């Protein structure tokens, strides 16, 4: 099998879900020029928010990392939909912005968002190395623990 993003997903046992429809008045992604902007993705699994609550109160760092990984999987699902099913059009992940629902004294947002960063880098190699933000939030939509959006260069 050739070394593609799809083959790396398969090797990890990851099947991309169908891209989620927007929950409000926005587009799930926008392509302008050679950039793909993906709206914030929640830790959805099997059609529902898999990890809810605040980091440091309801959710530990390891579970938060899993939430971030699910967000990254959903980012790739949106990218696949945006690119007509061809993930190999991804030239580079430019930036991930991670939002972590956190109780006020929690300061390990960067460790939580590593769940997404590590998966993206593993699946995309050098093209997956990206700039990033990891920010604590009082709450997120639908009580999700994590939300992540992305800017991707495409070819």
Automatic annotation (TrEMBL):
Question: Domain of life here?
Answer: Bacteria
Residue stretches making up the Endoribonuclease L-PSP/chorismate mutase-like domain: 6-146
Q: Which Pfam families match?
A: YjgF_endoribonc
**What name is this protein filed under?**
Enamine deaminase RidA (YjgF/YER057c/UK114 family)
Please report the organism this UniProt entry assigns to the protein. Hoeflea halophila
């Amino acid at each position: 099998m050739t070394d593609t993003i799809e083959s790396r997903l398969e090797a990890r046992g990851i099947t991309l879900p169908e891209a989620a429809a927007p929950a409000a008045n926005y587009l799930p992604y926008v392509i302008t020029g050679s950039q793909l902007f993906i709206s914030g993705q929640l830790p959805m699994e099997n059609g529902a928010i898999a990890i809810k609550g605040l980091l440091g109160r309801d959710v530990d760092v390891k579970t938060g990392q899993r939430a971030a990984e699910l967000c990254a999987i959903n980012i790739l699902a949106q990218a696949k939909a945006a690119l007509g099913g061809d993930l190999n059009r991804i030239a580079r992940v430019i930036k991930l912005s991670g939002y972590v629902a956190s109780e006020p004294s929690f300061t390990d947002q960067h460790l939580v968002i590593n769940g997404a960063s590590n998966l993206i880098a593993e699946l995309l190699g050098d093209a997956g190395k990206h700039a990033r933000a990891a920010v604590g939030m009082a709450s997120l939509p639908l009580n999700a623990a994590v939300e992540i959006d992305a800017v991707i260069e495409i070819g």
